[in-house]
């Protein structure tokens, strides 16, 4: 094969001539590679001053694969994220180092601003104020939230009492701004009355009003028909006046006028327990004047000092003594406001979730309140959670036993639905497909996560062949995943075997498979060396390590797949050193180099599957161990335990010539040809030494009998692993 490189674009002819001077001519055209960069989508900044814009670029030509560089952010994927408002330039470079640039413009909305128009209270104590939020900037439509009870969510609110109100405005991009308005009220009308009490049985009293507050001038309307601030010729009794200022605000006022020297009255009122009940009570206690007293209540015309079963209202009593002097008192039976349950519902975040909640903002009645909800857990607080979609009711009971029932609906969003439309890749080995996710339901805005590409925009490019997924998450954190397959317009497929592990010294055969290929090739991944031009690659595993090989399939497209082979060293197994021991010795074997072991012969071993079994040896035995490494490779070793007879000897001799025990006999000493026997006296003097002991020492030294006594022996068998025998030896005669 001949190769020409560094060619410019143009038309080339190649002539091939063989050794026989035969030739063939072919032509090829080298075309100029071009690349085009385009911006296929942008997402503007959501809120003024935020940096959450995105831009997606795509290469319209050129040679895959592509690299991307965004300026000024430095991001290097086809999608740029977390962008502030401004211009961004992306440079796309293809596999031939050709490049092109495109510019994306990220916009931002105008900043949110609020102007609040308000109307103050007309009369002191009224609740007829209003406010309207005028919003500019941001992204319409807007939502409103006022800190009223109950919560109001319209642009304008009314029926406001005096006080401070806060509105929070949220635009379509979830940007927020808050502002405050204060609703004021005029000063209250104060009558400032002056009284002249009438004499007993007379009608010579008077009332003079000198009002302040409100807006002068004032008009008057008395229950006796008078319309002036001063009324005269009054008997003892109760007088009602409406004082109206210049703005139409009216004070209804009650004045009790008693006779001079009339009894002194003390009243006690018991309020009704529940709104609209009639279980109130009023009592009057009189002192002074001239008893006995008579009583006349209004309304009701009752004549006792205590009246019961009364509804809420104002009650006056005239107490007349024996001198016809009249004392007048007024008291009020109040009623609590009706219990109102302003229920706030917080819907479930995601379809099918049970994380909704409800809160009762309770007014009126007599605190504290007790709650009984109809949720599955029968919760008993003003705020409950863990609610599925559906209706939930609450019974609220106040401290007087008054109750009210109210209900609220918990909703859930529709399940998120995702539809993916995508194009094919040009070849199965390329990543040049595009995809777009269309989302319905859920709660906007959405975020996207494409796998395995990792892109995060709604529209993506440079998607690879095969199975892909997109996970869409809405503003409530609800998510759904859609799987889609990207096909190839011209499919060539290559499949290598799965990664594997073999032991050193083994021969491995890798077999690849291809589809729609004209030829195949195996390459060494680390060196790029061509190893085979067919589906089969034979590997001789000699050196340990991990080696990767690429299987290529060539056709109109090129496809590849990689397999990595890990070669494990054979374990270096050590069964331990050979030993020489006496018959009946308990020995312990000890193997190393593996993670599991098998010993043979196994009959007398305590456990032949552990590294260190024990055995009581009675004959010379060779033990074989097979060890397996963590990678599954096998190694073997052996150890020989040589068994020798144990010498035996008495601890004394009687060399008296009777033929019994006349010499020191060491049984089996002949089995140890290298044995050395030594006899010492108590002072350490060597009396006898033999390197080939024949059981012939008779208790003599230099031919003369040794005296009766204790002597000391040292028997060194000169066998590896055996210690010398030492001890006392007694001569008796």
Q: What is the fold's blueprint, element by element?
A:
Blueprint: E1 10-17, E2 23-30, E3 37-43, E4 53-59, E5 67-71, E6 79-83, E7 86-93, E8 99-106, E9 113-119, E10 129-136, E11 143-146, E12 156-160, E13 163-170, E14 176-183, E15 193-196, E16 205-209, E17 219-222, E18 230-234, E19 237-244, E20 250-257, E21 264-270, E22 280-287, E23 294-298, E24 306-310, E25 313-320, E26 326-333, E27 340-346, E28 356-363, E29 370-373, E30 383-387, E31 390-397, E32 403-410, E33 417-422, E34 425-427, E35 433-440, E36 447-451, E37 459-463, E38 466-473, E39 479-486, E40 488-490, E41 493-495, E42 500-503, E43 507-511, E44 513-515, E45 519-524, E46 530-532, E47 536-540, E48 545-554, E49 558-568, E50 579-582, E51 586-588, E52 596-600, E53 614-616, E54 621-628, E55 634-644, E56 652-653, E57 676-680, E58 686-690, E59 700-701, E60 704-705, E61 709-716, E62 725-731
Parallel strand pairs: 34-40, 42-49, 50-55, 56-62
Antiparallel strand pairs: 1-2, 3-4, 4-6, 5-7, 7-8, 9-10, 10-12, 11-13, 13-14, 15-16, 16-18, 17-19, 19-20, 21-22, 22-24, 23-25, 25-26, 27-28, 28-30, 29-31, 31-32, 33-35, 35-37, 36-38, 38-39, 41-44, 43-47, 45-46, 45-48, 48-49, 51-53, 52-54, 54-55, 57-58, 57-61, 59-60, 61-62
């Amino acid at each position: 094969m001949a190769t020409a490189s560094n060619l410019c674009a143009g038309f080339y002819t190649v002539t091939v001539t063989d050794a026989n001077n035969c030739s063939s001519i072919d032509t090829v055209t080298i075309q100029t590679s071009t690349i085009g960069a385009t911006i296929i989508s942008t997402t503007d900044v959501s809120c003024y001053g935020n940096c959450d814009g995105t831009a997606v670029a795509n290469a319209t030509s050129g040679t895959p694969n592509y690299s991307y560089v965004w300026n000024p952010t430095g991001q290097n994927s086809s999608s740029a994220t977390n962008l502030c408002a401004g211009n961004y330039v992306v440079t796309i470079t293809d596999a031939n180092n050709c490049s092109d640039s495109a510019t994306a413009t990220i916009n931002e909305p105008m900043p949110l601003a609020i102007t609040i128009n308000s109307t103050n209270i007309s009369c002191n104590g009224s609740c007829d104020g209003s406010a309207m939020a005028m919003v500019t900037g941001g992204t319409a439509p807007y939502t409103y939230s006022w800190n009223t009870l109950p919560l109001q969510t319209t642009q304008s609110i009314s029926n406001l009492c005096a006080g401070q109100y806060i509105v929070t405005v949220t635009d379509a991009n979830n940007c927020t701004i808050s502002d405050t308005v204060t609703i004021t009220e005029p000063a209250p009308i104060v009558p400032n009355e002056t009284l002249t009490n009438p004499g007993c049985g007379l009608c010579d009293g008077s009332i003079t009003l000198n009002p302040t507050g409100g807006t002068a001038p004032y008009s008057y309307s008395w229950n006796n028909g008078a319309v002036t601030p001063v009324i005269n010729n009054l008997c003892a009794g109760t007088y009602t006046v409406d004082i109206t200022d210049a703005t139409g605000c009216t004070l209804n006022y009650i004045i009790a006028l008693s006779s001079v020297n009339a009894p002194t009255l003390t009243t006690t009122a018991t309020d009704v327990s529940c709104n609209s009940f009639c279980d109130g009570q009023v009592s009057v206690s009189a002192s002074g004047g001239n008893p006995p007293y008579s009583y006349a209540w209004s309304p009701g015309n009752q004549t006792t000092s205590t009246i019961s079963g009364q509804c809420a209202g104002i009650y006056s009593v005239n107490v007349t003594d024996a001198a016809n002097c009249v004392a007048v008192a007024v008291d009020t039976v109040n009623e609590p406001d009706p219990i109102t349950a302003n229920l706030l519902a917080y819907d479930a975040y995601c379809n099918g979730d049970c994380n909704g909640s409800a809160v009762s903002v309770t007014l009126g009645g007599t605190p504290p309140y007790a709650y009984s909800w109809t949720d599955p857990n029968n919760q008993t607080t003003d705020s409950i959670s863990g609610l599925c979609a559906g209706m939930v009711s609450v019974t609220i009971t106040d401290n007087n036993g008054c109750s009210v029932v109210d209900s609220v609906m918990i909703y859930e969003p529709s399940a998120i639905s995702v539809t993916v439309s995508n194009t094919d890749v040009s070849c199965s080995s390329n990543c040049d497909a595009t995809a777009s996710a269309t989302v319905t339901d859920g709660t906007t805005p959405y975020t996207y996560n494409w796998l395995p590409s990792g892109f995060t925009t709604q529209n993506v490019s440079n998607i690879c062949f095969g199975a892909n997924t997109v996970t869409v998450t809405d503003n409530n954190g609800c998510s759904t995943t859609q799987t889609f397959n990207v096909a190839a317009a011209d499919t060539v497929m290559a499949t290598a075997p799965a990664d594997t592990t073999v032991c050193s010294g083994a021969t491995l055969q890798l077999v690849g498979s291809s589809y729609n290929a004209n030829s195949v090739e195996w390459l060494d991944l680390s060196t790029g060396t061509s190893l085979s031009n067919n589906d089969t690659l034979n590997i001789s595993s000699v050196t340990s390590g991990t080696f990767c090989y690429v299987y290529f399939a060539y056709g109109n497209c090129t496809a590849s797949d990689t397999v990595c082979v890990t070669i494990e060293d054979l374990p270096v197994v050590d069964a331990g050193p050979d030993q020489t021991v006496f018959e009946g010795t308990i020995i312990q074997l000890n193997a190393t180099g593996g993670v599991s072991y098998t010993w043979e012969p196994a009959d007398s071993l305590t456990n032949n599957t552990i590294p260190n079994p024990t055995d009581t040896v009675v004959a010379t035995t060779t033990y074989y161990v097979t060890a397996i490494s963590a990678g599954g490779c096998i190694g073997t070793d052996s150890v020989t335990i040589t068994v020798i007879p144990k010498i035996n000897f008495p601890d004394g001799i009687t060399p008296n010539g009777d033929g019994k025990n006349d010499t020191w006999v060491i049984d089996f000493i002949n089995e140890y040809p290298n044995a050395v026997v030594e006899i010492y006296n108590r002072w350490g003097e060597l009396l006898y030494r033999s390197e080939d002991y024949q059981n012939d020492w008779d208790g003599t030294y230099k031919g003369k009998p040794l005296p009766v006594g204790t002597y000391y022996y040292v028997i060194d068998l000169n066998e590896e692993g055996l210690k010398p025998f030492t001890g006392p030896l007694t001569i008796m005669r």
